[in-house]
Amino acid sequence: MRETRQGNRGYRPDDPLKAVRPARIGGQAQEEDRDVLLGPRAVKEAFAAGRQINKVVLAKGCGSADAESEIRALAKEAGVPVQLVERAALERISSGENHQGIVAFVAPYKYAELEDLINLGLARSRPLFLVLLDGIMDPGNLGSVIRTANAAGADGVVITARRCAQVNSAVARSSAGALEHTPVARVSNLNYAIDKLKSQGIWVAGLDMDASQTIWEADLKGPLAVVIGSEGAGMSRLVGERCDFMLRIPMSGEISSLNAAVSFAIVAYERVRQRGV
Fold this sequence. Notes:
This protein has helices spanning 2-8, 40-49, 65-78, 87-94, 114-123, 139-151, 169-174, 190-199, 237-242, 260-275, and strands at 24-25, 28-29, 35-38, 53-59, 82-85, 102-106, 129-134, 156-160, 184-187, 203-207, 224-229, 245-247. It is an alpha/beta fold. The strands form 3 sheets. Strands 9-8-7-11-10-12 form a 6-stranded parallel sheet, with helices on both faces. It is elongated, with a radius of gyration of 22 Å. The termini are far apart.
């Protein structure tokens, strides 16, 4: 009898994690094939993009009634189950991050291949535009870069499997839904990715505060991949050596650097200005 009580300890009838916790096989927890999206905007964009959504969970009396109604309608149309739970349950799912009363369990994010992004550019009439991130560890920065890439018409974002933030719920939230529309490719080696892009006739420009040429002076209208390094360390030496040219953002204040997302936004919209889009 004692074993039965212990086995049921912590059970909650409305626990949204009960149905999605990893199964145990041979005493070992097996990783569930799922990710979590937080907040109404991320969830709505996932529905709009046709991403596989396994379950939507709403908190009782939390968040916007209009947003909840819209999410319920989208879930009904897509045949996705909706569960209503206490706010505390969503706090456990989100680890305390802001969820605005709405979360969704989705299939893991499917990264694009670098070749997919190159082919995407070849299929379009306008020149390819990519951003490559070197050592960007902050998920908020990555999400903001994806959001700006989408707004500025970039074709995709390239990250590395190591020394870089990976796509997760925090990235999805800070991208404000852009993650569902702008592909992210993950490569094992950024140097190889740069060589591959250059072999396809794509110019690669690195941002460096000590570069002689400013972004106002450079021609950014053609096929272009911009490399952004971390705020502290910048680009790695080998990555910098592979760039076709280096650029700097003119700064006149006491602060000598900008974070990755802001830096990319400035470069991206200088390109937009030059192209007259």
